[in-house]
Design goal:
Strand order of the largest sheet: 1-2
Number of strands: 2
Strand content: 5-15%
Helix content: 55-70%
Number of helices: 9
Distance between the termini: 56 Å
Mean pLDDT: 80
Radius of gyration: 30 Å
Structural class: mainly alpha
Largest sheet: 2 strands, parallel
Oligomer: single chain
Length: 229
Amino acid sequence: TLIPTLGTILIILFGDIQTFVGKLLSARPLRWIGLISYSAYLWHQPLLAFIRIRSNSTPQILSLLIIIFSVFPLSIFSYIFIEKPFRNKANFSRKQIFFIAFIAAVITFFVALFLIQTATTQTLLNDKLNDPYLSDLKKYGHWQYVVRDFDALEKKTKTFSNQTSTKTKKLILIGDSFAQDFYNMIIEGKHLINYEIRVHFIFSRCQIYMGSEDRREFIEAKHRQACTN
């Protein structure tokens, strides 16, 4: 942001209405953009944040374009009916402005407090009770879903098959809960379907070491016994 900021400073300091840049920036459409720019800045971030929260995946380009173009009428409304009246000293005194700001801050605080207190029992943006994916996960505990498929595969098959099959590539996945999560992503997303996959769990405190030194040197003393079994 330093380069555009310096460029803006140079235009303000040395710009002239008689130059091409001065005439361009003095055009009515660009002046209007300048007037509503602060309102647009305040509007665009929460709108984009809310649409990302509401979307189960990355928002579509069309949705983002609708949000971006809706910022302009909202910004014009904010400038005409909120920003412009407050800039006029004849409409509000300094005390009135501070009083209104204080009341707005208090109302915002208590609304936010109420939303935080009720968020544990009632969602504001997603209908979790009717979400089929989340309801399916309720059958498992917080950790059982993570280990279910990984453990099942590890217990079922220990080695790769020697038989010829359509799965010509072999993949061995070794690790702790991160490996379990990664395997779940493979299964849920139906990735690596042409791979014959085998898994092996290693506690995070043990991990894997491929060097020539004694691996026990890299394991805490209290965990060495468990990791060497």
